[in-house]
Amino acid sequence: MAAIVFRTSRSRRRLGLVLSIATLTIAVLLVLFPIYWMAITSLKLPREIYRMPSLWLQNVTLINYQTLLEQKGFLVAIRNSLLVSATVTIISVLISSLAAYSMVRFRYRFRGLIGKLILFAYLTPTSLLFIPLSILLARLGLGNSLTGLILVYLTFSLPLSTWLLRGYFRGVPRELEEQGQIDGLSRLGVLIRIVLPLSAPGLAAVSIFTFTGAWNELLLAMVLITSESRRTAPLALNYLITSDTLPWGPLMAGAVLSSVPLMILYFIAQRFMVQGLTTGSVKG
What we know:
It is a single chain. Helix content is 76%, strand content 0%. By secondary structure, it is mainly α. The protein folds into two domains: 2-42; 73-278, MetI-like fold (Orthogonal Bundle). The longest helix has 41 residues, at 2-42. Mean pLDDT is 84; it is low at 278-284.
């Protein structure tokens, strides 16, 4: 009887393992297939793209990349996206760190109201604000400029960064901060030398979310940027579509080139991302 129960239990474990592997395999295929299709389409000749679709490459060509880089100047758009996204990320993390630490450790009037307003600002749809923001930037003389685009992106990234960092900073033990103050550190010194190092995974996660959001944003860039030399990567890809014509080769080549910086960033910071999303950056 015991042997039968043992065999039944082992069979169930094997069945569970097989189902888990099958589920993971299907999930991986669903995630990787669009990337694979994008990559092979960017390497196909136009006549191979528009005829019966094929999952395999027959003639590898770089003509789509050549068209995109030499005729469309896509590297300028990549440079603009890198500049805007990196600047937004650095400024957003610096300001939101100070704001989040203030809301977590200091007590002052309307602190709870400020936190709710920050959350409300993040939840406000972009489609409701792009017209007022475009008018404001035009009056400030910042229309059609990367500086204006950076300022607009900050209005959306700062609330999210502040809200997320509040949770990470709450996980830092107060005793460590008090010990630092006993050793002669100021409040700013405590933040820089104790809180931020202990919150490094959280800071990395927030930085990646901010960078990704700025890199992929299209609606605001489409409204605020009109010059070809100031287009970001998503905007440059959008302008490849003319009338009813879809140049799938250059579009897929641009999508591949636009994905490379994000892939590199996530590959480098994946360890911090996992720690930041699971443990809340609490150490010790």
